[in-house]
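Good morning,

Both structures are done.
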Amino acid sequence: MELKLNIRSTKITDYEELKEWWNWHRFPPPNIELLDGLKYGLMVSYGGDNICAGFIYFTNAKAYGMLEFIVSTYKIRDKVIRKKAIEFLINCLKEVAKNNGVQYIWSSVRNENLIKHYLDCEFSIGSKKTTELICKL
């Protein structure tokens, strides 16, 4: 089955929908400042329904970037559509990063299903059992 998935840049008006998705997944929604005003995100849709979104972070080391905060709607339950949409999103985010000079992209993921999607998109596991440390300045 060939799916006609659409992709676009995220926009500030997507934020309320994204917050709803993160809350449903029991993940604290990142604030708009952390998402840099949603400037570096992509949204995938199918048949007029938004399915998933994710964000790229560029660093001062041009060759290194981060792919973070991938989230999907809870309203689309079809596993084939969800899998294809999430993997399409990951691959599109990788392409944006590559087109901006990024050679290595890193992501921190704890959801086992999402990890499988990353692995299907040519990511490899770097380390396990690490602790993320965050300091608000």
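Second structure follows.
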Amino acid sequence: MIVKKPEQPLPANKVLFKVPVQMTGYDVKNYLEKIYKIPVMQVKTRVVCGEIKRAKSTKPYLIKEDDYREAIVDLPKHVQFEYPDLYGGERVKLEDEIEKIEKQFEFIKKREKRRTFSENRHNVPGWFGV
């Protein structure tokens, strides 16, 4: 059972879960009430077809991911659910690091291009560039 962030925003007292296909709405409700002691008003479920992707090999065939069930759980009005911020302040640091590495990669690509260009110019002085 995984908490899933919805594509369209839900009210604060509703939570979206990704659960196995074998779990029913009754199972989800009992699971949340008995194990996590979360008050549940209603559970709506639907089966989502797994994504179909092209295989990463050279052979032309498709791979289908497993189907799963989405459960929208209604909590009482006084209970508010906030999705956890997994990265916190580290997300900005990670984005800065990625940007820095991309700049370094671009610099290395340009330097390599210049080096291969100069290797093809035998017996031509460096100041004679066009």
